């Protein structure tokens, strides 16, 4: 039985990857941080009661800033594969805590690689590093002749997050070349799901769409509506991570859908799932979205009501304007075929958030009806 260790197991990708590896018959170990409140919601369905826990699933307390516990966990687990997904992954927040991000996302990667080397596991343990399209920085002149970023495009990170991840990228490549380690970077473009953190733009939009449609919120405030992203589904992307570590030769791969969409259009797609058409008027910080029509009897809003506005507090000091990745290498070499397209992703996120908001609404009503 293969043994995998996942850092960042409590995150979006960690939870999907854990499910995938368990399905494939792996023994899965995960690193979770100690927190003052529960942080295991995304994996609770796997790990419900530690006394009746999934027999092939174990969690260890740990933190990527602490090399002593990284070494101890890797020594105990003796993994065949390590997926280093742990990170402070929010680009905007990285401007507020740049040193912490460098420590976790940059040096944290080194701690994993060095632990494997110190323990003499270079030949046994394969390492996947969660690299990112943020390395490209969205500079138009760095795209290839087909208009995509590919594995040869130059990097130009535009945030402390991107700068920390670029160290993680190069140190992974360096350990591969210097010590013959099977260490690979997956350069993943944005991937989303119903489990996406609530402060990333797609989930913020689908949650707010559901809340507005159900009368629980008045207006959705967003930042840069002009940003364009290449969005895929996290379930498809964790499959690619696994495939990267099953190859004969360790290499780096871009994982992307090869299509890009404006944030504004993602808003329109989300609202259209509940039968609401939005018309955008105005420009820059004055741009606003209004209800143009409502075709679903369950979700009726006043026509002409303003429900979207721009709030500059969500702008970033430096923005990545446009990302679009070329998945040719991953499709041909890894045989990776995504099952979801953007429409399918939005549909799934909206269905999940409608249920979520309905449940919250019901709980609120129950609580307010109880006379304490
Ligand atoms: P996520 O939902 O934010 O999850 C991040 C995980 O890292 C969480 O489990 C978090 O733990 C953990 N973590 C944070 N700080 C840590 C620390 N100091 N020590 C150990 N663990 C720590 O991110 P995701 O979307 O699943 O992304 C997974 C990885 O892929 C990240 O490295 C991210 O940077 C990278 N990536 C993501 C995308 C994307 O579009 N999703 C694209 C490219 C690359 P808590 O639950 O306790 O916070
Ligand atoms: O922003 C714009 C924002 O925070 C997407 C991480 O997983 O993917 C993610 O990073 C775009 C940006 O993701 C709001 O300015 C507009 O242009 O969802 P996001 P991100 O920054 O692309 C990469 C690949 C990673 O590696 C990261 O870990 O949307 N935007 N209005 C907004 N963004 C947010 N968060 N909130 C807004 O209100």
Automatic annotation (TrEMBL):
Keyword annotations of the record: Lyase, NADP
Residues in NAD(P)-binding domain copies: 5-349
Cofactor: NADP(+)
GO molecular function, one term: GDP-mannose 4,6-dehydratase activity
Biological process terms in GO annotation: 'de novo' GDP-L-fucose biosynthetic process
Keyword NADP belongs to the record: yes
SUPFAM superfamilies with a match to the protein in the record: NAD(P)-binding Rossmann-fold domains
Enzyme Commission designation: 4.2.1.47
Protein known as: GDP-mannose 4,6-dehydratase
Gene: gmd
């Amino acid at each position: 039985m293969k043994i995998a260790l996942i850092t960042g197991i409590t995150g979006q990708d960690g939870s999907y990857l854990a499910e995938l590896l368990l399905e494939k018959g792996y023994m899965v170990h995960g690193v979770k941080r100690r927190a003052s409140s529960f942080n295991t919601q995304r994996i609770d369905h796997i790990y419900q009661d530690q006394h009746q826990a999934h027999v092939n699933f174990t969690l260890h307390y740990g933190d990527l800033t602490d090399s002593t516990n990284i070494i101890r966990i890797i020594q105990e687990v003796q993994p065949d594969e390590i997926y280093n997904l742990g990170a402070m992954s929010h680009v905007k927040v990285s401007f507020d805590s740049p040193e912490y991000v460098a420590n976790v996302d940059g040096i944290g990667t080194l701690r994993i690689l060095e632990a494997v080397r110190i323990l003499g596991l270079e030949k046994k343990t394969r390492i996947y590093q969660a690299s990112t399209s943020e390395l490209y920085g969205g500079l138009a002149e760095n795209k290839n002749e087909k208009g995509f970023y590919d594995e040869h495009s130059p990097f130009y990170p535009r945030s402390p997050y991107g700068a920390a991840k670029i160290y993680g990228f190069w140190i992974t490549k360096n350990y591969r070349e210097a010590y013959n380690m099977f260490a690979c970077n997956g350069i993943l473009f944005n991937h989303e799901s119903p489990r996406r953190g609530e402060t990333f733009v797609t989930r913020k939009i689908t949650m707010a769409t559901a809340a507005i449609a159900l009368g629980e919120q008045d207006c959705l405030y967003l930042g840069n509506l002009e940003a364009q992203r290449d969005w895929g589904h996290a379930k498809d992307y964790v499959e690619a991570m696994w495939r990267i570590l099953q190859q004969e030769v360790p290499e780096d791969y871009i994982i992307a859908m090869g299509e890009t969409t404006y944030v504004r259009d993602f808003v329109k797609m989300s609202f259209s799932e509940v039968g609401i058409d939005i018309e955008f008027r105005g420009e820059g910080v004055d741009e606003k979205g209004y209800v143009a029509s409502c075709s679903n009897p369950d979700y009726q809003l006043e026509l002409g009501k303003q429900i979207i506005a721009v709030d500059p507090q969500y702008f970033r000091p430096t923005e990545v304007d446009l990302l679009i990745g070329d998945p040719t290498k991953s499709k041909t070499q890894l045989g990776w075929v995504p099952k979801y397209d953007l429409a399918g992703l939005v549909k799934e996120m909206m269905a999940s958030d409608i249920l979520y908001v309905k449940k919250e609404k019901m709980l609120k009503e129950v609580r307010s009806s109880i006379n304490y």
